[in-house]
Write a structure and sequence with these properties.
Helix content: over 70%
Order of helices and strands: HHHHHHHHHHHHHHHHH
Structural class: mainly alpha
Number of helices: 17
Number of strands: 0
Strand content: under 5%
Radius of gyration: 22 Å
Oligomer: single chain
Distance between the termini: 52 Å
Largest sheet: none
Length: about 290
Amino acid sequence: MKKSLLTGLLLIFFCPFACSNEVTEDYFDFATNYCIEGNYIEAINYLDKILLIEPNNKNVQDLKNGLRQIIQGNNSSFVPPKSNAVKQAINCKKSGDIQGELNSLEGGHDYWAYYFLGQFYRQNKNYKQAISYFIKSVNLKPSFNQCYLEIAVCYFELGNFQQAITYLKQYLKINPQDDFAYALKARCEANLNNNDVALSDILTAVALENSIDNRFLEGKILYNMRRYEQAKTKLEKLTNEIQTAEIYKYIGLCYAELGDFSEALNNLDKSILLSDDDKTVNARYNELKAKIEK
């Protein structure tokens, strides 16, 4: 499952929707209203209308998949918010009244209001404050285990990878099918140089959701483990689907470690053309070029 149903639905409640035209904006508003009412079938109908116009809109596709799982009863932990504070905050958000949104949530004092306060502060990168509200939310409703994942995300952003892992383990005991949580744990373990554990986690994530992001992370972890041939093979397969500076950077670095400087330069050059902000890539490129020109 891509991250979680609730996190997907937060795109409806609190994230701006990038519309290509007024028609899709209207359809999204209809879907939002039906979702708030709990009428997920009608919400999906309007999301389908958007996808006819924007078939590559991944956010809308993820929302549609999430709503389908709710309808099928695959996520019993999700309950549509019945908090008046949250409803008021949603209306303020729609009208662009950020202070009104915050004031509404702060006046709620229920687990949904605390949860969305956590989201508010997380989106504004105030991770410590976000953690405090997520903890308040789960203390009021211990079964609301989504908070454990959100707390883990905040600790990850703060660079406290060990604490993030603690909450991810707690979350995964209850939600063992969440690929996002396994992928996030893999990132944490990799940052702590626990690469064997990181690889195990990302392979679990790939088995649950064979997404580009998960496979890309697998390739990067293999590179960190100095399994350069495997990493190169994994990453090169992804270039049919993604062409970013980062992927060509890792492919180039793999070729460099394998001694194929020509292919290394070719890929590092692509990385630099897409983005020349990475000084390590520029330095490695110049180093390899100097070796070839000797």
